[in-house]
Every structure is written in structure tokens, then in C-alpha cells.
Write a structure and sequence with these properties.
The protein is of the alpha+beta class. It has helices at about 20-30, 75-85, 90-100, 120-130, 140-145, and strands spanning about 5-15, 35, 40, 50-55, 55-60, 100-110, 135-140. The strands form 2 sheets. It has a 5-stranded mixed beta sheet. α2 packs parallel to α4. The longest helix is centred in the middle third of the chain and has 12 residues, at about 75-85. The two termini are about 20 Å apart.
Length: about 150
């Protein structure tokens, strides 16, 4: 399977000991899909039976790329576009890292069979490293996602 047959999305995931997710949203100008603040009440689940509190702040949202690139099946181009959009926020990335947090790009690849090869150039990896963003790649079969 090739990337030409894959659906690619790039998300930003931030974990931090105490940073307010609203501050992240304002700084980035992106809307999160999921977020919470350290100390917020964590609802009870079937596994926990009781509520607790989140130990760290969390922010997760889709990094949109220009519309003409949304269906482009090129992982490298998608990462460069996302990194270009985020690189001007170096102060935020530095703060997150210095205060014990972590920021990463999460790339999801959905394909018909779930198998693919992923190749990234050293230039792209260097660009991400220069910004201070880690990368995580998750592959999934579209049949399993349905």
C-alpha cells in the first residue's frame, strides 16, 4: 500500500503540568477537540468507579492545512505545512518544554489495509526538532475504523 491510498490527518497534542488550555487555544488560534486543565475533575468511568482529578493539562486539536493540500497524500508535505503554521510559536514550545511538558504532532494514516511505508527526510525531521515538536505516527485500517 502506498500513501497515495491513505487518508492523512495531522493533530497537535500538548501535555503540561499546569498550563491553561485556554491560553494554548488563544496562542495558537486553533480550536481543540479535547482539552482539560490540571486539577479539573475527571469523571468516573466504568473502570474507576469514582471521579478523580487530572494530573496534567491536556490540549488536542487538528492542525488544518490549506484546502488545496487537504487531500494530498504526501505525509512529508502535510508535516511541513503543519510545522510551518506552528513554528512562529517558538516561545510557547520553549515554555512547554522548560516547564516539563511535551508537544507533539500526531499523524494518523488510514488505509485500506493498514500497511504502509513511512519515509521522512532529515530536513523535515530537523525542522520539527528545531521547533521542539516530537512526532507520533498511528496507522489504522479504514475497515477497522468503520
Amino acid at each position: 500500500m502506498s500513501l497515495e491510498e491513505a487518508n492523512i490527518e495531522v493533530y497537535l497534542r500538548i501535555r503540561h503540568p499546569s498550563l491553561d488550555p485556554d491560553e494554548i487555544t488563544e496562542e495558537l488560534g486553533l480550536k481543540p477537540e479535547h482539552y482539560w486543565m490540571a486539577g479539573d475533575v475527571r469523571p468516573a468511568t466504568a473502570d474507576t468507579f469514582a471521579s478523580s482529578h487530572y494530573a496534567e493539562s491536556y490540549w488536542f486539536g487538528l492542525v488544518r492545512v490549506p484546502a488545496e493540500f487537504e487531500k494530498l497524500p504526501d505525509l512529508e508535505v502535510m508535516l511541513v505545512l503543519a510545522a510551518t503554521r506552528l513554528k512562529s510559536r517558538k516561545t510557547l514550545w520553549k515554555r512547554i518544554t522548560e516547564e516539563g511538558g511535551r508537544a507533539e504532532l500526531l499523524v494518523t494514516l488510514q488505509s485500506d489495509d493498514g500497511a504502509t511505508n513511512i519515509d521522512l527526510t532529515s530536513e523535515t525531521m530537523s525542522m520539527l526538532n528545531g521547533i521542539g515538536l516530537s512526532i507520533s505516527i498511528a496507522t489504522q485500517s479504514q475497515f477497522a475504523a468503520a
